[in-house]
């Protein structure tokens, strides 16, 4: 089954997913990277691994529906069934959401519903919590509000900086996301193991 990853940034999670695929440990085929930031590092990673990309600049479109319709067209041509967001910094609009209902999944660096939105790691660090974490959830029309699929907690230690906390969270993300992706795809196939 084919999937697309949507990312806007450095792409460490995209890379973690691709590396699982290369080791034949991913239950789907990452057929496309969709990126809304020309020049983002994640594009170089896709090129290094020979993954096709669709890179666009939202400023070149009159409205969200215009680029989302273009994205849907490209996904459908490639027969993409799942969308995994990995640092895609845009709200998914109705044009995309309705075509891919219950098939769009996001990764967020906190224990939702705590610390939704931007800079969740910074928010948790500033709040002084002792535990934060990582959430994988279905995407709905809100910001980080969809049904939770899986979470993993991460300790915050007294001598942590935002940077050391971020690194610990990323290590958890890189393990958790490919595992949950496999779980979702196997569930869909009816293999409950
Ligand atoms: C991750 O922390 C993810 O949880 C959030 O955006 C970040 C993307 O990081 N949604 P990277 O580009 O995969 O390194």
TrEMBL record:
Binding site for (6R)-10-formyltetrahydrofolate: 64, 89-92, 106
Catalytic reaction(s) noted: N(1)-(5-phospho-beta-D-ribosyl)glycinamide + (6R)-10-formyltetrahydrofolate = N(2)-formyl-N(1)-(5-phospho-beta-D-ribosyl)glycinamide + (6S)-5,6,7,8-tetrahydrofolate + H(+)
PROSITE patterns listed in its UniProt record: GART
Record GO cellular component, one term: cytosol
Gene3D superfamilies: Formyl transferase, N-terminal domain
Alphabetized NCBIfam families for the sequence: PurN
Protein name: Phosphoribosylglycinamide formyltransferase
Species name: Virgibacillus oceani
Taxonomic classification: Bacteria, Bacillati, Bacillota, Bacilli, Bacillales
């Amino acid at each position: 089954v084919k999937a697309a990853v949507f990312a806007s940034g450095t792409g460490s999670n995209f890379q973690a997913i691709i590396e699982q695929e290369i080791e034949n440990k991913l239950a789907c085929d990452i057929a496309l990277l969709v990126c809304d930031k020309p020049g983002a590092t994640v594009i170089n990673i896709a090129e290094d691994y020979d993954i096709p990309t669709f890179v666009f600049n939202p400023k070149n479109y009159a409205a969200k529906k215009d680029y989302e319709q273009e994205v849907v067209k490209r996904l459908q041509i490639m027969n993409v069934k799942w969308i995994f967001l990995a640092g895609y910094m845009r709200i998914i609009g109705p044009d995309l959401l309705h075509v891919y209902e219950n098939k769009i999944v996001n990764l967020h660096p906190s224990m939702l519903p705590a610390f939704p939105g931007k800079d969740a790691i910074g928010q948790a660090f500033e709040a002084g919590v002792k535990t934060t974490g990582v959430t994988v959830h279905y995407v709905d029309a809100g910001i980080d509000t969809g049904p939770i699929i899986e979470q993993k907690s991460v300790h915050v230690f007294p001598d942590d900086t935002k940077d050391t906390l971020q690194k610990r969270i990323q290590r958890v993300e890189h393990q958790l996301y490919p595992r949950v992706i496999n779980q979702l795809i196997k569930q869909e196939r009816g293999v409950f193991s």
